[in-house]
Amino acid sequence: MTSCNDEMDNGLKTGDEGTVTFTAQLPSEMGTRAFADGLTAKHLQYAVYEAGQSTPLKVFGDETTVVGEAEMVNLKKSVTLKLTSGKSYDVIFWADATTDSPYTFNPASQEVSVDYSKVNNNSDNCDAFFKKETITVSGNQSVDVKLTRPFAQVNIGTDDFDAAKASGLEVTQTEVVAKAFATLNLATGEVSDEADRTFTMKAIPTASDGEFPVAGGYKYLSMDYLLVGADKATVDVAFNYGGPQSRTFTNVPVQRNYRTNIYGSLLTNTTDFNVVIEPAFATTNYNLGALYTASQIGGAVTLSDNVDFDRTIAVQPGKTMSVNLNGKTVKNTTDLWENPSVPNSWSLFSVRGTDSKLTLSGDGDVIAKANDCYAIDVQGGGHLVIEGGHYNGNIHAVYVTEGVAEIKGGTFEVQQKYPDAEKADEFVLNCLDENYKNGTAKIIVTGGTFIGFNPGDCKAEGNGTNFVAPGYASIANGTAADGRTIWKVVPAVEATTEAELEGSFKRGSVTAISSNISTATITTCHSKSNLVFKNGSVLKLEPTETGDLYTLSVRKNSNLTISGNGSIIAPVLISPNPTTSQAAAIEVGVQAYSGIVNIYDNVTLEGNSGAAGSYALRLVNGTANIYGGHFKTAGGLNGDSECIYLQSIKPWRGTYRQCNLNIYGGIFETTGDAKYLINCKDEPYKDGKCAIKIMGGIFVGFNPADNTAEGAHTNFVASGYKSVETTYNGKQAWKVVKE
Fold this sequence. Notes:
Layout: H1 4-7, E1 17-25, E2 43-50, E3 68-71, E4 76-84, E5 88-96, E6 103-106, E7 111-114, E8 129-136, E9 141-146, E10 151-158, H2 161-166, E11 173-185, E12 191-203, E13 219-227, E14 233-240, E15 247-254, E16 258-264, E17 274-279, H3 286-297, E18 299-302, E19 307-308, E20 313-315, E21 320-324, E22 328-331, E23 347-352, E24 357-361, E25 364-367, E26 374-379, E27 382-386, E28 390-394, E29 398-400, E30 403-407, E31 411-416, E32 429-431, H4 433-438, E33 441-445, E34 449-451, E35 472-479, E36 485-491, E37 493-494, H5 498-507, E38 510-513, E39 517-519, E40 523-525, E41 528-541, E42 549-554, E43 558-569, E44 582-588, E45 595-599, E46 604-607, E47 613-619, E48 622-626, E49 630-633, E50 644-646, E51 659-663, E52 667-670, E53 678-680, H6 682-686, E54 690-694, E55 698-700, E56 721-728, E57 731-738
Parallel strand pairs: 1-9, 10-16, 18-21, 19-22, 20-23, 21-24, 22-25, 23-26, 24-27, 25-28, 26-29, 27-30, 28-31, 29-32, 30-33, 31-34, 37-38, 38-41, 39-41, 40-42, 41-43, 42-44, 43-45, 43-46, 44-47, 45-48, 46-49, 47-50, 48-51, 49-52, 50-53, 51-54, 52-55
Antiparallel strand pairs: 1-4, 2-3, 2-5, 5-8, 6-7, 7-11, 10-13, 11-12, 11-14, 14-15, 16-17, 34-36, 35-36, 55-57, 56-57
């Protein structure tokens, strides 16, 4: 039996049919009553072609119809076609106004033509959308089709209506003349027949047509849709408002699916005006428009709503822009990395070129899409200042290729980590290496909070990189939920002498050492303080008298946190007793007073060989928390090689003082016999007065889970952790990790 459809010459070959449902959708961010809301484009037309061909197919149920028609509802419409499985088709969609549309769709040529005699100025009936969708049918299926505009929207606005009216000029109608094309090929997107087109004089837009897309009190004088090509071009826009003279704006940039805003005090000022082009003119987020504008011509923007970027906001050479985040969120759900809309797109914000400047302030978030881009970059000599906000990027939060980034406040972290796990968070701030070395790329940090990243001691430009400015220091300031150390940059006292260092400790200040300091006596910390080493600086004691000596002593119930990139060297004693003399880089506590020391980063504590016992750290009364650092010793004169020694003191009438050692990280080694690398005085250890918990770190030649320091099979490793064999600089070592 032959069906009626089989007898119909519809251009399809016999085969299994599939029902294909196409949902034509205008951009979903539209729909609010205003120019370019898409609501006038209700008349949907569509035609079907074999892929790559130009003859329309008769797939609409009769022998003559080659164009389907439907009415868009709430910016979308679903239509159903029966097509042959296994074949490929081009389906062309065109949506324009139901009435008074100046456009004609010709399915035979696949073109839309414009009748400019029907084109009026300030008319949203000229809005329209198109898309060619190519599919291969594989049974029943659904296809979403997003239509976009083939136009550039040109908006002209002014802020001096009242001033013009006071001078006797009341503008009620406007007209525009500009070059535009008359034909659009819907299959290829190509345009043809360019000429000067007149957009006929009509009444100016009113408040019901929506706000002008640039903040600052501007109101519409004119709005037009120009049929243009896909690439950016420039046109001259002649503008007549019935005043004493018409205006011509030359070399105005236009681009398909972009809007160009021309604005200023246009009725009273005949020379000055601004021209800014921005993408996706369908958006109703005026914060985005304001940001684009300020990036092109300069200005200040305070966000009033969250913003989803569809391209990088790039501050242009010679322009100054400031953004108050005002508690809002800047993000991107569209990939920005190398987005073709802006060359060298790497970030949400970019500062580009000589004399360009961007200042970011206020609470709020700048959050890059995961695995996509940075938060901010500086290129070509730009200047970035960050005073507040939360910045979360991928690999880098801030990246400087050429220029300066000043970090005065804010919180910084990354979500996508550097692929080397040992350097996962080491590049939150980063510069292009060669330009950092030659001084043309700089990061200067005087404030801010950094999660898992120490700007005063990182690997961004090599081990020990310091971005923190003189007079400031980066100190440990808590722990994030995932265990990463939080660093905070604060003002610091720069100590260059023994007296300055001692005085700063007495005041409980944050103290930075940027150059080497040699002392003649023990330097004592009496308070809660921070000591930050910069630039590989060294603190050492060069004694002038005999006796047990320690370069740095933490006592009198003090609490000292040490971090950064530098070294504390134990003294070489004068005439030491080979069986009793002791020296250490740091001593914690004395008989009468306890102390606490916290050690981070790349600080090196080094014991020399000029004593019976020469330790990196000697713990007498108190607690040592070690999160990082390098601890090493050459061993004592009597052959002892303790790197860290817990030597609890027992008063004449009393009990041993409590000593607690907690190791979370760091490297521990000796040039001597490592069997006592971590060791306690035997009696207080047996009495429970010397407690060691190891939860991280690398121990060269010493297994912290199975050693003889306190007898056979001594285990210092905390519950829930284990010691695994590894190597360090070619030597046998053990690393403590979670079970």
